[in-house]
Amino acid sequence: MIYEKEYTNQISFPLGGIGTGSIGLSGTGRLIDWEIFGRPNKQSYNGYSHFAIKVEKDGRVLDTRILNADLAPHYMGGVKTENIHSGFGFGPDQITMAGFPHFKEVRFEGEFPVACITYRDEHFPSEVKLTAFNPMIPSDAWNSSVPAAFFEFEIGNPTEDDLDYMLAFSVSNPTGTKKVCHRYEEKDGIRYLKLDCGEYDKEDYHFGNLCISTDCEETSFQEYWYRGGWSDGVEMYWNDLTGSGKLKNRRYESDYMVNQQVVHDVGTLAAHVHIPAGKAKKIRFVLSWYYPNIVKSWEVKYHPEKRMEDMPVWRNYYASMFPSSRACADYAMKNFDSLQKRTLLFKNTLFRSSLPKEELDAVASNLSTLKSAAVLRLTDGSFYGFEGCIEDAGCCEGSCQHVWNYAYALPFLFPGLERSMRDLELKYSMAADGRMGFRLQLPLGTPPADFRACVDGQMGFVIKVYREWKISGDDKWLKENWTGVKKALEYAWSESNEDLWDEGCSGVLRGRQHHTLDMELFGANSWLQGFYLCALKAASAMANYLGDSQKAELYREIFLKGKEWTDSHLFNGGYYCQDIALSDQSVLEPFKDQTCLFGDGTMDIYWNEENGEIKYQIGEGCMIDQVIGQWHANNCGLGEIFQGEQTKKSLESIYRHNYHKSMREIANPWRLYNLNDEGGTMICTWPQGKKRPAIPLTYNSETMHGYEYQFACHLAQMEMWEESHEVVKAVRDKYDGCKRNPYNEIECGSNYARSMASYGLLLAYGGFCYDMTKGMIGFYPRTDVDQFETFWSLDGAWGRFYCKGSEMEFQVLEGSIRIKEFHWGWLQGKQADRCSASDWRQEGEILYLDVMLYEGEQILLSCKG
User: Which of 18, 255, 459, 846 is disulfide-compatible with 145, CB 3.0–4.6 A?
Assistant: First the structure.
């Protein structure tokens, strides 16, 4: 996607590894949102950190500019910094460098994980192009977790004269000047400027360092900017920068404070290139960081009586990868070529997929969450995620089961990390009776929070174990976890289940059901029932595979009873609804002596005395996730959960009643994720003639994007392409770079995990199917197109699939995969007459073969008929 002028205003493109934190590249070229310190840090700058460029001819300076564009309005002043003359009423902070000559025009092109900025100005003789990224390579979690930002500048000289350029990278030491040490060094053709601080012990959560590096052959540097009061340092820097020739070094050996206040030292590393007329050259920089200690900062944020110094501290995984930012810089610079090449191969393959541009944008841009401060990698490398981020802390801790149910990107791109989430849940979140805490507590070993289990989270866990097993084909992993899976499922009818989900193994959830909308439903409903049915079917399949025939039959019988009842009793002719008498207070009686969310009693929270109704229920409403169980089943290859025609009618009803082209006339007392004439799909509506509870389902008027994406994916799976596209476009139109950041979809905070449901669009458009336990992979792309191409990824391999007419190509671009069954929907009714495999046979649309494919190898197929 291309952004220009005001459409760059809100962009912050995260540059960082998985679990390392990140630095935001703004749409105007600034380095913002410095979230590398083990916690979110929105709307932040790190002092005077920036890039600048100077051009000279025969020793005479022609022009010097900061590599930024105009600062986005407003200009009244923003977030207050350490500078006493900052904040609202002082104008923009000088650390934005907006007061210096900069580039008038920028063009930002973002195809995550790669951002490109083109800088132009009538006073500068050259066009400058920046390519920025952090490695993102499917199944290679190690290289995708490097704590660094990679920058490559291309400078073209369009003039008739040879010119000399200096590209300077200045970075502020965020730790301050007490015991600070900035040092330049060279080794093996790489130049480094290290920004260290010896004030803190290596185990202290403040401890850390930065490193700027380049492989440019000719450099100059200033280990320190001039130390002085007021704006002395930046005044002297500009004098040095705009002077002819190279920078002269400045070094200080002692600490420095002004009026007892810590001052942040800045260092600059500059690359110098001579570019002949009509030629271009590239300059590379890497900014690496090492802040290895994670503190449970969010605990202090939500409990101000607690002190940061008393919170537990543990090591980030990347501390086992590198001992310092200098070591990371060394690795990054030496492997720059291969890491960039592999990242671009992934990006280019993904963006060649035959999806509409809005769908591709939704798939790719939401991958940015994996590079944001919303995720961590724990000491052993396990993956952990918040729901999202508030400005300075993780929001809603614990890899929340019901939110991460929607996030389909990680299990396909980094299956090992996704499996680590299941391992942590089983080891640390499950009680002896199978009840699971739906928020993993840190540090590991902390008992689960004392709150009831969550239906969609716990049943989602069972479904996800099935999915991870099918993606990996790892039978050993399944066998090791099978006991826990059974306990999780059977908690539904356990005598210890205080919520009475399914007494008597009826296959129908009727008790008190906690869910992702933060309250409880009472009585049967297809939304949570669908999770239960899907989990039962998945567990039956796993039991059957493992030879546990008794459990396989039990789960199958319960599933069939529940499915028949659901299809018969919850479908009202247009959609699935909730089976509850809102005026029947006795529904709450079994739980009246128990506390609910926030510690209040069930009757106090759920009974509306004035209206004589139970609060927070769906009732006759049309709920966006009413058939989500079928969506999960489709994604995992589990077959029918709800009756097919009824599912389609339900989706049509959701589109008709919940999707709005404009929200201008909608009353929304909840959070505002769209406004005015923006479109969106609401959580729950009550069509004309249907009773709306006085106080209905929580968040009912919101348009949560993860919900919208799963709905759009399901529409696509049912070949309702136009409706699906309209729903997706309504979301992405809001994130246009002017009103909202395209790389930060919000819900309960920034970088919200649920939006990674958008990855399901790639699965839906390609009709992607897989079962690595059988060596099966397949594609059933939409049939109303002449050709189709898509990216695919499974555990240990990824690549491209392409078909046109009667020909097909399946290629492995990295890794290896064994294929025994290849399914291709376009083979139906056609006979294959040529295949690159030496031994194969066809049955319908299935090709049976046995080939091991490695990087660069492919299956080619042509057919007739």
Answer: 18
Per-residue pLDDT, averaged over 285-303, amounts to 94
SS3 177: coil
**142-145: long-range pairs with CB below 8 Å, 24+:** 142/321, 143/335, 143/339, 143/342, 144/17, 144/18, 144/414, 145/17, 145/18, 145/19, 145/20, 145/317, 145/318, 145/321, 145/377
- Enter the tokens of residue 803: 């078909």
Please give the structure tokens belonging to residue 269. 């590393």
Residue entry with tokens 């690795």 = 331
Structure tokens at 619: 């009732």
- Integer CA distances (angstroms), 137 to 347, 352, 417, 794, in order: 9, 16, 13, 12
Phi, psi (degrees; rounded to nearest 5) at 207: -60, 140
E strands, 96-159, in order: 105-111, 114-120, 128-133, 148-156
Residue 303 has pLDDT above 90, yes or no: no
Quick check: 764 and 716 in contact, CB under 8 A?
A: yes
Query: Cα–Cα–Cα angle for 660, 661, 663, nearest 5°?
Result: 65
pLDDT at 261 over 70: no
Q: What structural domains and CATH numbers belong to the chain? A: 2-340 (2.70.98.40), 353-580+617-765 (1.50.10.10), 769-864 (2.60.40)
Assess contact for 543 and 555: CB atoms under 8 A: yes
Neighbours of 187 (CB within 10 A): 9
Q: Which residue has the tokens 């009618």?
A: 649
For 503, phi and psi rounded to 5 degrees?
A: -65, 130
57, 50 in Cβ contact below 8 A? no
* Contact between 771 and 469 (Cβ < 8 Å): no
What whole-number distance in Å separates Cα of residue 243 and Cα of residue 408?
53
The rounded distance, in Å, linking the Cα atoms of 815 and 416 is 14
Beta-strand pair 776-779/807-824: parallel
- Where residue 756 falls (left for φ over 0; alpha for ψ -120 to 50; beta otherwise) is alpha
pLDDT at 758 over 90: yes
Question: Quick one: DSSP state of residue 596?
Answer: -
- Tell whether the model's pLDDT for residue 489 goes beyond 90: yes
Type and span of the H or E element at 280: strand 280-290
pLDDT over 70 (residue 258): no
Per-residue 3-state assignment (H helix, E strand, C coil) for 478-502: HHHHHHHHHHHHHHHHCCCCCCCCC
> CA-CA distance, 247 to 240, in Å (whole number)?
6
Q: 789 forms bridges with which residues in the sheet?
A: 802
**DSSP bridge partners of 389:** 394, 750
Which residue's entry shows tokens 């800088």? 119
Rounded percentage of the chain residues whose pLDDT exceeds 90 = 90
Q: What is the pLDDT of residues 577-602, one digit of tens each?
A: 999 999 999 999 999 877 766 667 88
Q: Are 603 and 568 in contact (CB under 8 A)?
A: no
> DSSP assignment of 24-49, as one string?
EEETTS-EEEEE-SSS--TT---TT-
Q: Which residues contact 547 (CB under 8 A, 6 or more apart)?
A: none
Alpha carbon dihedral 691, 692, 694, 699, in 10-degree steps, equals 160
Closest CA to 426 of 380, 379, 372, 489: 489
Strand (E) positions, 144-197? 148-156, 163-172, 180-187, 190-197
